[in-house]
Design brief:
Order of helices and strands of chain A: HHHHHEEHHHHHHH
Chains: A mainly alpha, B alpha/beta, C mainly alpha
Distance between the termini of chain B: 39 Å
Oligomer: heterotrimer
Low-confidence stretches of chain A: 302-307
Helix content of chain B: 25-40%
Radius of gyration of chain B: 18 Å
Number of strands of chain A: 2
Number of helices of chain A: 12
Largest sheet of chain B: 6 strands, mixed
Chain lengths: ~300, ~250, ~300
Amino acid sequence: MTYALVAGVLFGLYFSLVGIGLNLVFGVMRIVNLAHGDMLMLGAFIAVGVVGVFGIDPLFAVPLAFVVFVLAGLLLYWVLVPRLQGSANPEMLSIILFFGLSQVIEAVTTIFAGTSERSIQSRLLGTVFTTIKVKWFGGKAGGAGPIQILGQGFPAPWVIAAVTSLIAIGLVYLYLYRTRLGTLTRAVMSRRDEALATGIDVDRVSAAAFGIGLGLAAVAGVFAPFMFGSVTPAFGADATVTSFAIVVLGSLGNPLGTALGGVVYGVFYMLVQTYLSSWADLLPYVLLILILLLRPSGLLGRRVRVA
Amino acid sequence: MSPETKPILTVSRLVKRFGGFYALDGLSFHVVPGEILGLVGPNGSGKTTAINVISGLYAPDDGEVAFDGAQAGGIASHRLVHRGINRTFQVPKPFLSLTVRENIQVALAYGHAAGHAAATPPSMAELLDEYRLKEVADRPAADLNSAQQKMLDLTRALATRPRLLLLDELAAGLNPAELDWIAGRIKALAATGMAIIVVEHLMGFIEQITDRVIVLNAGKEIFEGTLATAVREPQVIEVFLGGEHAA
Amino acid sequence: MPDTSKHLLFILAPLVVVFAVLPGVYQNHLLLFNFVIFLILAQGVNIIYGFTGYLPFGYVGFFGAGAYGFAIMVMHLQTPAPLAVLVGGVVAVALGLLLTPLLRLSGAYFAIANLAASLAVLHFVANPALENITKGPYGVSLTGTFNPTDAYYAAIAVLALTLGGVVYLKNSAFGLALQAVREDAVSASMAGVNVVKMRVIAWLASALVAGLAGGIYAWYVSVFYPDNVFSSDFSIFAIVFALFGGVATIIGPIVGVLILYGIYNLIGFTTPQYFQLIYGLLIMGLVLFLPAGLVSLATRRGWNVP
């Protein structure tokens, strides 16, 4: 029980990171990024590349993935979004547009990388810490062993992913509540039309949110090989559905709600895995539907979403 | 006008809350067939909320709406439409991708339930002609300018043969010539026995067409009578001028 | 001649006749069958998305429910295939009824909830705990009813029914009212339209045709796994085909299926990733430059497209 709960929280924090970028993009632009999972998949491939080419700790892929994808996001934003926003029904068409994008990403990745599963030896993650530890304090070199929490051992990559996620969520919070652009972002999220009317540069705010959203997805992707065992180009579609479940749980359009949604999802997921494994696959979806119908604004939301 | 006839709509002690805010706080009034009643008051005084409750968009939290002798509060809009209530919207809401003709067709086809006797239906040609939409009849509603969209909204309502028509700021944004013309049309509709409630900010327009006004403030009636007397009433002046000066 | 007869005579009839005759001259019957199935599904999407505005991202749920409705009737009650197909349709409608609360959701929320619903049905059917009823993840084998020829003609019958339904929607006050609801539900109710009833009818109609198509698919292939008949490719293909041609028209989805599924069969089997690339780029180009589908090339010029 303790094991399932702690593992659930660790996974949940990671799931929050998985979903938060999707939510930021929807909250600001009312755009449903169905290619979100593919950004995760590409992030994972960056990690695989960093390990394969340089043979260094995949943690170094985190800043790399973030920077690359923020830039890619800005570029994609300017190519796709203004045209989309000009159409009759941007929310609906965004689903289809980004589905097309996800197909393109999946196809291109398959063409260049094949369909085989990619994984990274889990002991490679966090070697940078153990190296520092050995240098400063002496001791045995090698990968990080299991980490003890509440008397139980958990794989080091889970803990590292959870800690990274916490830091990332903290940074998103600081961005939204402590910077000028973040404040404007919140203004656009609460009333897009009024924000336009008051002269806020909605395009700049949106582009930033889009870039950051993609960057966060790619960072989450770096850890995907450790959390899910391996990744293939087709991993993106499943990751998108999972992200949705998390985001809706927390409330769509409220990025910080996603942190709660992720933890609830993670704990729930681990408990079901442990005690009801034959129904485990079914429950996330049923949960998603029930939350949408019974608590239509998510666990933390206030927004009305009824037709 | 014949104010002595039996009211077609009677609203009694109507209450509508949004969270802790009382948009309507015990509103009562009535309107008789053939009468044009104005609802006036500052922004947020509950005029549009009153129309939304009477047309079935919101269910009242307390109080009663009686239409034609039968209870009408909290009944689904399309049923009220079939019983003879219709309205226009402050911001017109036409079916944008359908043509003007198709917009009206929907209301002609669905506006009337079997078994409810009413006057002969207005014809498509009449409606298009009388509300100056003939030229644009086969264009999508999205192509119309805002005055034309307002007229389309009105014809959509009229196609259902209402006996009570609620007009929410129909005149706002029209030019003086259009105002005169639409005032004439509204009076002509009332002359056929239709009861009409007009929510409007343009006092000149209200003066021109209404028989009687109700002045609302904070969801309550503070005055009832003609506009000419209303403007001499200290409480009314307080609400309109005092409120604005203070703000 | 009224438009309804014109549409029946010049669109529905030729299409049905061509597909009825083609097996005699073209050998790849499975391909023809798949074309008919996608024509049905694309028109089913047209009914619920084109006319009503709900994007059914989990549309395959009805298809799979129909396939399993068919399979269960055949496996456990030895029902004759045509009757089992009808039961497949009924099962899909029952699922549609169960899911009517989803219609309260709007826009992306509906699309996501519908996707989740189809995945939930998949995992329910594929659950090893239900092996006695559905054969769980191990798949079903229905060799007793295997008859691709009859199944093919049944598919054409359902296609005719579906097209007939769309022709009705395109030419009736009922179809117009549905579109009014799609455009603005509040105004539609003020035009006297019973919004909830209209939405439910369209939803169940589109569930019915997908369920019948699923039952016939089960009849035709006779051996399948849950992942086959609940593959989200069915939903996605049907949606993209319908959109590509143009929804809320009769010919849009037909054109979409013939062109895109044609391309798919030319290049999709040998090099699926290149098809996926082209298909993804086509979708993106469509949304950005032709959001109302290919037919909008004609409607923009003021031509009336049925």
